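job 3f2a | input accepted
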Amino acid sequence: MAATRITIPLDPETAKAYRGARPADKKKMQALVRLWLRDLAATKPTALNDLLDEVSEKALRRGLTSEVLDALLRGA
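job 3f2a | predicted structure (76 res):
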């Protein structure tokens, strides 16, 4: 399937971290966003907090720790 580009507004620090990331890390970030958006579209949450909790739990089960996320956002 061909990729479709979308534009998502971000705060300046997040945008800077993404732009400064290595290509391999950008792919990881893109995969995380893709998974999160798919989860969001596939569920009918009763509250945004419930959804965010569920996505956080899935990310933790998949190995995304706060340290890994911080490193990705810093471009380390």
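job 3f2a | The first helix runs from residue 12 to 20.
job 3f2a | closed
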